[in-house]
Write a structure and sequence with these properties.
With 229 residues, the chain is an alpha+beta fold. The chain has one domain: Alpha-Beta Plaits (2-Layer Sandwich), CATH 3.30.70.100. Helix content is 28%, strand content 31%. Strands 1-3-2-8-5-7-6-4 form an eight-stranded antiparallel β-barrel. The longest helix has 16 residues. It starts with a strand and ends with a strand.
């Protein structure tokens, strides 16, 4: 499955509330119906004191999952998208600054396990069961560190309380040798409070995990699931 991410900047003159509300409806109501989409998630950027001022460079992240490379590559030309979705984008987003990548996903930690001494509730939690989760997303730019994916990533994620952890690399059939990003890191928590408690509980692990990317875009989002995959 191909995982497609779009970093979405807010249009000039559009308030934060209007941006997020318009993105939810009518935009998501339309975009989730693109026939080739197998999964659809909106990640609404949420402020945290644990990240710097550049965390608000983008208003959020659109995620779409596709079955095939041709579906992913043809998304922008799909008839329903061209007729209903694309014309709505300028109403809330600065389309001149959209940044995107098609990826292959590597799941390091699919979910928490009581074998790692987590509370029973955390072992029961699964991101696919919840309409809203908290997620830290890091997009490693082309000028970032090629060694952004470390052998101890999974352990560092566990130390800061992430219940799920995935790394996404550029899809070679879509981007060839010139991808727009080196990769994407995703870490999930049940709530924003759980994320902040975990990161503050082991600041060294949090710093090490994020710093190894170098030049990157990092943001905390409320991830709202509209289609399950």
């Amino acid at each position: 499955m191909i995982h497609f991410f779009v970093l979405v900047p807010r249009a000039e003159g559009v308030s934060e509330q209007r941006f997020h509300d318009h993105w939810r409806h009518p935009h998501a109501t339309l975009e989730r119906l693109v026939p080739t989409a197998r999964g659809y998630v909106l990640g609404h950027q949420t402020h945290t004191d644990l990240l710097g001022a550049d965390q608000a460079e983008f208003g959020g992240v659109t995620e779409v999952a596709f079955d095939t490379v041709s579906d992913a590559a043809g998304f922008g030309g799909e008839a329903f998208y061209r007729r209903h979705v694309e014309p709505d984008e300028p109403a809330f987003a600065d389309v001149s600054r959209l940044e995107w990548i098609d990826t292959v996903e590597e799941v390091l930690v699919p979910r928490a396990s009581e074998d790692t001494d987590v509370p029973h509730a955390d072992a029961l939690w699964l991101h696919l069961d919840r309409p809203v989760t908290a997620k830290l997303m890091q997009f490693v730019r082309r000028g970032g560190d090629a060694g952004w994916a470390g052998s101890d990533d999974a352990e560092l994620g566990r130390r800061i309380g992430a219940l799920r952890h995935a790394r996404n690399r550029p899809h070679p059939e879509v981007h060839g040798d010139d991808p727009p990003f080196l990769g994407v890191r995703q870490l999930w928590w049940p709530t924003i409070t759980a994320f902040e408690d975990g990161a503050r509980g082991d600041p060294e692990a949090f710093r090490r995990l994020l710093a190894r990317a170098g030049d990157s875009v990092t943001l905390l989002v409320h991830a709202e699931r509209y289609l399950r995959w």
